[in-house]
UniProtKB/TrEMBL annotation:
Biological function: Involved in the regulation of the intracellular balance of NAD and NADP, and is a key enzyme in the biosynthesis of NADP. Catalyzes specifically the phosphorylation on 2'-hydroxyl of the adenosine moiety of NAD to yield NADP.
Pfam family, one: NAD_kinase
tRNA-binding is among the record's keywords: no
Single GO biological process annotation from the record: NAD+ metabolic process
Major location (coarse): cytoplasm
EC number of this enzyme: 2.7.1.23
Active site: D43
Top-level taxonomic group: Bacteria
Binding site for NAD(+): D43, G44, R48, N113, E114, D143, A151, T154, A155, Y156, N157, Y158, S159, A178
Reported cofactor(s): a divalent metal cation
UniProt-recorded name of the protein: NAD kinase
Organism: Seohaeicola zhoushanensis
Catalytic activity: NAD(+) + ATP = ADP + NADP(+) + H(+)
Gene Ontology MF term list: ATP binding; metal ion binding; NAD binding; NAD+ kinase activity
Amino acid sequence: MSLKIAFLSSDAPVALSARDALSARYGNVDPAEAEVIVALGGDGFMLRTLHATQDLAAPVYGMNRGTIGFLMNEYHETDLLARLEQAKEEVIHPLSMRAMDRKGVMHRALAINEVSLLRAGPQAARLQISIDGKVRLPELVCDGALVSTPAGSTAYNYSAHGPILPIGAQVLALTAIAAFRPRRWQGALLPLSAAVRFDVLEAEKRPVMADADSISFEDIDWVEIRLDPTVSHSILFDPGHGLEERLISEQFT
């Protein structure tokens, strides 16, 4: 088996060392020419790689040279070609975010894991939440709120006590972050087709930032979020270790 592989790595010394070793063993081509892209790092680097290569046809296979590695496979140097041949492909779609700041500037970004709104000052944020144009929650006083995909549901969403979503679930998670009022409101499950809008109340007094997979925008007035089915990310996993298995296993650890 012969494959054109592009090896990409984070700046961590262990990831750089792995890239050099793998490149020497298997060769290394430009991502635009690759049949497979191998990302070496942690989940953060995997997300950056997926965003950076979304217009390329090659799927991405991650190997963990970072910390958590939920989206990554185990690192082994010697049997890579056999693993790539046996790997299973999963296709996921990102969230699309439009965020208007208080100066009237529109910001756009895609998020594979989640879009979050976070208070940017000492006072709690006040958010109004609308779903498909209908106000569902006139006021949420909180540290923030987020919308998560199934693929991202074990990340920030889970830390904020949101639900873990099976990869095949046709829903998004809307999760409150440290809700003060309504105090017991934890969030909602929404259909994949839902359009979610957050309006920031008292934005000058209670500033809010918006974040899409660590791409942040400050002093936000409102945010709209929906799944973008026109953008696809192809991820390769070792057999028996795909996203569905990982999402189930995470609930029993």
